[in-house]
Amino acid sequence: MSYSIQYRELFRVKILHRFFLDKGTDDFKSMNDTDQQKQLKDYDFRSFLKVNPTAESRQRLNGYNLVFKQISTGFTVWSKVDENDDALPFVPLADDLEFTFLLQVNDPRFYNYTDLKMENAGKLYYLSNRQLDTEPNNFPLIDKAGGNFHVDEDFILSEDGENGELQQLHPGEKMNLIGVLCIFMKGDNSSLNVTNAQDEIQEPAPAFEVVFKNRNTVWRYLFDDDQQVTGGDDVKKENGNSKILITKDEHPLTLNGFIPIELGGVGLPNPGVALVRPDVSDNTIYSEIYM
């Protein structure tokens, strides 16, 4: 009698960042499938974020015959299934069963191109399909793929909530930690459940989505010589200084694509992400370009 071990995908989490996926002013989600696949071709979230289960959750995954697997767009969790019914996990998964994944930044320029308030660096974001008891009733939940969800300041934990989460982690797990992602088998509403009402694996497997927005900045051009500026240009003098010109509007920072900015009919370069300067005096963030 032959016997083979089978696994089915239990759930997945997509981790998307619009700095890498948008193209100039073209929003990734508004692109057609062909253009989206082009943007995803060279995309790998591990260039800016490290995501792994906590030590406790890794042991729990092993105990339930589950497998954690990273892919360029996030990660998947697979379940060994019953030999007689591939809709049933090999080990039953309780409604309150939860797995916690660490989100640790590994790019020092992350806050330069990510639309999160720089003054909140060091605070802990909490992404889950269930709310914590320490947080208010309006604390947001993670969304399924294709929704309008993106990470923002609403997901920052209260002091009590943060302390409670950090107490569960080993010292090394707290390094460069920006957030924790907690997935329960049953969410606070049925649309966020991992397993169905019969505790079976769903088809297709639920896909959650973590989206980071790219930062919009005013672009500041620093010249060695005075520049002639007219009302038809895309830039203006900053405080009357003819050597420092700024864009009239904010523009998104993207790795790919080009946004035309003209001065006297000549195109100016788009900025990189190394020189991003917040100015508290006018509550504006500038991207600087030396000409």
Q: Could you describe the 3D structure shown?
A:
- This protein is mainly beta and 291 residues long.
- It has two domains: 7-212, no CATH class; 216-290, no CATH class.
- The chain has five helices and 18 strands.
- The protein has helices at residues 18-21, 33-41, 55-63, 110-113, 159-166, and strands at 7-17, 49-53, 66-71, 74-82, 85-89, 98-105, 125-128, 143-144, 177-184, 207-212, 216-222, 235-238, 241-247, 251-252, 261-263, 266-268, 276-279, 284-290.
- The strands form four sheets. Strands 1, 3, 4, 5, 8 and 10 form a six-stranded mixed β-sheet that branches. Strands 11, 12, 13, 14, 17 and 18 form a six-stranded mixed β-sheet that branches.
- The radius of gyration is 23 Å and the shape is elongated.
- The mean pLDDT is 94.
Labels describing this entry:
2 domains, 5 helices, 291 residues, single chain, mainly beta
Quick summary:
By secondary structure, the protein is mainly β. The protein has five helices and 18 strands. The chain has helices spanning 18-21, 33-41, 55-63, 110-113, 159-166, and strands spanning 7-17, 49-53, 66-71, 74-82, 85-89, 98-105, 125-128, 143-144, 177-184, 207-212, 216-222, 235-238, 241-247, 251-252, 261-263, 266-268, 276-279, 284-290.
